[in-house]
Structure formats: C-alpha cells, structure tokens
Amino acid sequence: MHRFLDLCSGVGCFHMGSELAGMQCVGFAEIDKKLAARYQDVYSIPKRYSFNSVSEIIQAITESPELLLELQEIAVEAGFPCTPWSKSGDQTGKNHEKGMIFWEILELMTLLNSPFFIFCVIENRL
C-alpha cells in the first residue's frame, strides 16, 4: 500500500480519491485554519502529522531525525493553491508568494526520497 502526504489539502479531495485507490494518507498540510480543522475532523490525522504549511513540514523533519525516518519514501500529493492560479483568485501565478510553493514541495520530496507525486495544476487560459 502506498502512503502519501496531502499538501495544499483543502477539504481533502485528493485524500478521498487516493483512499478509494487503495492508498493511505499519513499526514497533511493546509495553510487555511478553517479548512485544516475541517480536514482534521473528517480524516482524524494524528496531530504529529498535521501541518500548517510545507515549510513547517520541512522544518519539522530537519529538526527531528525520527520524523524524517517515519516519512521516508512517502508519496506527495498537492493541489496547488487557488489564490494565485484560479479564475476565482487574483491570477498572479508565479508572481504570487503562494504560487512558488512548487519549489518547497520539490525540496520536501528530495528530503523524503518520494517515490512519486501527484500534482494538480490549474492552467489559466485568458
């Protein structure tokens, strides 16, 4: 069974689909506190694996060799933040601070030696 981290998790759409595909969610990161609380209520992820951001995960595994070992070779799933990319957001893409999270995710994947990733990127066509 593949294990995964759900990044930019929102309300957990990736989580639901991945579970149906036979995968196990180990942890998540969501910057929006209301969405994170809802995600926690629905999926009951242990607090140790509940993060506010990808940066927070990187910091936690850098400071805790035990956590790094626990999360080694885990897959990464991410639905990129809506604000910089979607039609309902400001459409600033790479020019938006949150639009650059891709590079943090790559850093995390390298640290964890992730075997694969699933990204959802919304392309704007104006």
Layout of SSEs?
Layout: E1 3-7, H1 13-20, E2 24-29, H2 33-43, E3 50-51, H3 54-63, H4 65-71, E4 75-79, H5 82-85, H6 101-112, E5 117-120
Parallel strand pairs: 1-2, 1-4, 2-3, 4-5
Strand order of the largest sheet: 3-2-1-4-5
Helix content: 40-55%
Rounded to an integer in angstroms, the radius of gyration calculated over CA atoms is 14 Å
Task: Note the gap between the termini.
Answer: 41 Å
Tally of individual helices:
6
Number of strands: 5
Structure description:
- This protein starts with a strand and ends in a 6-residue tail after the last strand.
- The protein has helices at residues 13-20, 33-43, 54-63, 65-71, 82-85, 101-112, and strands at 3-7, 24-29, 50-51, 75-79, 117-120.
- It contains 6 helices and 5 strands, in the order βαβαβααβααβ.
- It is α/β, with parallel strands linked by helices.
- It is 41% helix and 17% strand.
- α3 (54-63) packs parallel to α6 (101-112).
- β1, α1 (13-20) and β2 form a beta-alpha-beta unit.
- Strands 3-2-1-4-5 form a 5-stranded parallel beta sheet.
- The mean pLDDT is 84.
State the main characteristics:
single chain, 126 residues, alpha/beta
In summary, what is this structure?
By secondary structure, this protein is an alpha/beta fold. It has helices at residues 13-20, 33-43, 54-63, 65-71, 82-85, 101-112, and strands at residues 3-7, 24-29, 50-51, 75-79, 117-120. The N and C termini lie far apart (41 Å).
